[in-house]
Amino acid sequence: MISTPATVADDNVLLRTTGLTRHFRLGGLLSRRMLHAVDDLDMVIHEREIVALVGESGSGKTTVARLLAMIYPPTRGDILYRGRSVHKLHSRKDVLWYRGEVPMVFQDPYSAMNPVFRVAHGVMRNLKLHRRDLDGAQQREEAERVFDIVGLNPAADMLRKFPYEMSGGQRQRVGFAQALAVRPKLILADEPVSMLDVSIRAGILNMMARLRAEEETSILYITHDIASARYVADRIIVMYAGHAVEQGPTEVVLSRPKHPYTRLLLSAVPDPREKAVPVSADSGEPPRVIDPGEGCRFRQRCPYAIDKCATVTPLPRPMGPAHDAACHVAVPDVVDGDEAGTAGEWRRTPAPADQSLFG
Amino acid sequence: MSTATIAAETEPIEVVAGTRSQSAFARFTRAILRNRKASAGTVILLILVLLAIFPGVIARDDPEAAIYGQNLGPSAQHLLGTTQLGQDVFSQLIWGTRLTLIVTVVVSALATVISMVIGVSAAYIGGLTDRSLSLLTDIFLIIPTLPLLIVLASYLPPGSVTMIVVLTLTSWAFQARQLRSQGLSLRARDFLSAAKVRGERTSYIIFVEIIPTMTSLIVASFLGLSVFVVGFAAGLQFLGLGNSTELTWGTMLYYAQQGGALEAGNAWWALAPGAAVAFMGAGFALVNYAFDEIGNPALRPVRKRRARTTA
Amino acid sequence: MPEPLLEVENLSVSYLTDTADIRAVEKVNLSVQAGEFLGIVGESGCGKSTLLFAIAQLLSPPAEVTSGRVVFRGQDLVRLTDNELRLVRWRDYSVVMQSAMNALNPMKSIGAQFKDTMRAHERVSANAIRTRSAEVLHLVGIDATHLESYPHQLSGGMRQRAMIAMALLFTPQLVIMDEPTSALDVVAQRSLMTQIKELQQKLGFAVMFVTHDMSVIANYSDRLMVMYAGQVAEIGATRSIFERPLHPYSKGLLDAFPSVRGPRRPLTGIPGSPPDLGRPPTGCRFHPRCSEVMTQCLTTEPELFSVEATEVRCLLYADSAEPAVAR
Fold first, then answer.
1. Best interface-test mutation with B: which of C14, C18, C27 has the largest number of B CBs within 10 A?
2. Segment holding C29, helix H or strand E
3. CA-to-CA distance for C202 and C168, rounded, in angstroms?
């Protein structure tokens, strides 16, 4: 079932999911209807990497975030963090270990902080729970340090503020500071800029890139905005109706999209700097996947659908080095005369342009 | 020390002038002073509390002393007249404040705490716990209060403690439902998921993250319940279910009825405790209204201000 | 140049509260010609929604129009009584709200709500209502059988299109839209915008479209107005503003959009946050965040200056241009 991700070098893999699935029962206890939020997701996140999980609402991306954050368990499949199966962690010690390495930043800066406490609360709690090696004074210092890193200066004053005294952008920085306080390996960022004004997003996106470089943290950047994904992410995973339909290095997927949905998404993204690209008259929307059968979930909207698409669920197939797409009709790139995917192991290296953008 | 700082944002929006990092208590006090209903209610309650603590300051006579003329009407020496046994009604009224207030406050506090713990736990933990706790709440809601009270009060030793126990048991359930509803609406708030994801225990989340955000609702529950309890307690005591040797406004009503105050010519003996109960209830109710208005600006009285309109 | 369909003159709106007077809209002038698509762009707190509500006469206390006129087809809407307003509303202009789920009654079918709307503004027979309802649904690409559907049975995009259909019941000359695409995904958004443009070309109505996301209307609006802190920062032809933004704020906004197709470049955004409208900065309201600030910007409030066909409120253009003629 897994193609390219399995051939990826294992030495710097932080997190790997295999066949990750989550269903929700609709209706009461006796109902048989199941909502398929996520089905059979295979993905990998390496150290010091930003992976974008891109999809519209209903694609399952938020469910993936919640699964990785252990908010609820998967219906099937596995999540391996540093080789250990996450949902088999039961002892408080093990659970705290995981939570201390994989924190989450939430979408809504206005609801992610308890309005009753000062903004230092979340940071201090994180330090108390996960940085027992520090004493009280050192914890206070560390809180100031992470506030400095995210640009909330002067840190000592900012720590004393209440959430209502801060703007949305500042609150979101607090969210990242909380995550940084535990010295994370992987930050799960669930649409961290979607609710912020456009002019403020750039600052947060730039900050995320610096976290990768200077704090050596990986970030799973969950978003519906493919343009910002392109800006910060090394790799991109496109989700549709609970399935990963395409994944690979960002520039490759965006310049040579193989899956028809990726192409549709790309053509629909508005760019103020260019004239509108004419879009095929598609007025469809992602389906709510309730008790689906076999077959590709995109077929009703797909201009390239063939008979097979209605009966056989497409599995990810290699399209190029480390690039795969789950589509019966997608045509792989041919690399150096070899069939793509057999051209040896792929080692993740950032494209040279990546680093220079962020100074 | 990392030097990766970003151009920090400048001063954020000053939402309300002069409220820099003020604690909730400071803001709360200011809000009370600015709201007329709250101020009036607070004054009433303060008066009652002072009377409860220092009754002797106003009422010089010993309330129990049956030394005066019987069934006298109001006069300069006896502002509200005397009882059938010759006790000064006014003194009784003032001295009765203490126990009445204590019973009311203790019952309300206990019932609020119980309903808070049960309601919020049910909402947050969900699942089987929620179902069992909700069932428990519903049972207590369905039980007919008055008959239960009468039965319990008859079997248990009469007195304030019984009264407190009995009233608490029968009044927590309603609040629990309310607090559960509020708790349910809070479940979706991200700061609770955030607490869970950072590894907090469930008990911590309930007591430190959820309940403090519900303070205004909890205080409002407490106040609303007090209005109800003060009347109910008095009513039970009037029926003779209290301890008639204790001095409260309810027992005064009991004796007034037994002693035929209205026929004997001292109507004030019956009316005064009733009015006092209403007075205390009004105090709680006014502060309660004010809480709603403070918490929800949409309910505040609209004071239209006309700006100068230039064409 | 023919009479404009809508002319807003010196409009100011304030929120009058106990603690402060918040001047959400400050002396805004704009005009909309028949059939024109005007985009109004700004971030949270700039006053664009308040402006829209003021024009549509939908303000409620503590918000109040404190000065100015909204002249629609010769009548000042601000000064009309409720009865007079009812004649104009929905027939000559209509409004599409931000979230269909908030604006549509979840307990009534779409058809029933269309009927309510029509009955509220005109005496029409049941037959005429049915015909017209089916017609407008068809216009937006929804099958007429959905007249019986309830809002929750429709997808987000369809609900939003139903809202637009409702706004077109009387074929108004002006349709005012408040962020109708913000709750939609990229593909549904693109589809809706295309639809609006087609309808506009077919039926000839003017559109006033308020959004925080410039890229949404980039390819659809004829003219664009950029708002900041309750004032007009820049207004002109859309293409001019995108190709050559004059106001530093417009420049900053445009630069803040990461591009999907063009070359990758560093994004800078705009430092700081929008000002407190109860106590706006002295001089130019944008000066604390401006990368091209000059000393006079701290004390002088800039007028709107004309630079070719664009008007911009910035002292950078004070010498080279003439002040825009006060209307």
1. C18
2. strand C21-32
3. 12
Residue A252's identity, in one-letter code, is V
Q: Is the pLDDT of residue C101 over 70?
A: no
Helices A168-180, A120-130: crossing angle, 10 deg rounding: 10
Which residue of C11, C15, C19 is the best one to mutate when testing the B interface, meaning the one whose CB has the most B CBs within 10 A? C19
Per residue in B220-241, pLDDT tens? 889 989 998 998 888 888 887 7
Label residues C240-265 b or e (16+ Cβ within 10 Å = b): bbbeebbbbbbbbbbbbbbbbeeebe
Question: What is residue B220's predicted lDDT score, i.e. its pLDDT?
Answer: 86
CB-CB neighbors (< 8 A) of C183 in chain A: none
Q: What share of chain A is helix, strand, coil (3-state, %, to 5)?
A: 35, 20, 45
Q: What is the pLDDT of residues A126-136, one digit of tens each?
A: 999 999 999 99
Could you tell me which of A6, A69, A67, A82 has the C-alpha nearest to residue A37?
Answer: A67
Neighbour tally for A73: CB within 10 Å: 11
- CA gap C172, C170 in Å, rounded: 6
Three-state DSSP state, A321: coil
Highest mean pLDDT among B21-30, B161-170, C313-322: B161-170
pLDDT of residue A343: 33
Peptide bond into B157 cis (omega under 30): no
The answer to whether A227 contacts C258, with C-beta atoms less than 8 Å apart, is yes
Q: What tens digit of pLDDT does each residue of A268-315 get?
A: 888 766 666 555 555 566 777 888 888 899 888 888 888 998 899 999
Cis upstream peptide for A350 (omega within 30°):
no
In whole angstroms, what separates CA A9 from the centre of its chain? 20
Q: 3-class SS at A121?
A: helix
Topology, domain C6-92+172-281: Rossmann fold (3.40.50)
In terms of residues, how long is chain A? 359
Length of chain C: 327
Per-residue model confidence as pLDDT tens digits over B265-284? 778 888 888 999 999 999 99
Which DSSP letter does residue C24 get? E
CA nearest neighbour of B10 among A299, C203, C281? C281
Q: Which of residues 79-138 of A touch B (CB under 8 A)?
A: 95-96, 99-100, 103-104, 106-108, 111-118, 122, 125-126, 129-130
Q: Select the CATH number that applies to the domain covering B27-61+79-296 from these four: 1.10.3720.10, 1.10.8.80, 1.50.10.10, 2.40.50.140.
A: 1.10.3720.10
Which run of H or E residues covers position B161?
helix B160-187
Q: Using 50, 70 and 90 to split pLDDT, how confident is the model at A14?
A: very high
Domain boundaries, chain C: 6-92+172-281
The number of domains in chain A is 1
- Would you call B309 an interface residue with chain A, using a CB distance cutoff of 8 Å? no
Is residue C184 within 8 Å of residue C157, measured between CB atoms? yes
Bridge partners (DSSP) of residue A335 are A338
Q: Is the pLDDT of residue B76 over 80?
A: no
When mean pLDDT is compared across B68-72, C162-166, C203-207, the lowest value belongs to B68-72
ipTM for the complex shown: 0.81
Q: Confidence band (pLDDT; 50, 70, 90) for B294?
A: low
CB contact under 8 A, A178 and B20: no
Average pLDDT on A5-24 reads 77
Task: Look up residue C125 and give its two tokens.
Answer: 């027979």
B22 DSSP assignment? -
Burial (0-12, 13-18, 19+ Cβ within 10 Å), B288: buried
Containing C120, the helix (H) or strand (E) segment is helix C110-121
What would the pLDDT profile of B164-201 be if each residue is shown by its tens digit?
Answer: 888 888 889 888 988 898 888 888 788 999 999 999 99
**Domain around A229:** 4-102+184-269+287-357
The DSSP secondary structure of A138-156, one letter per residue, reads HHHHHHHHHHHHTT-SSHH
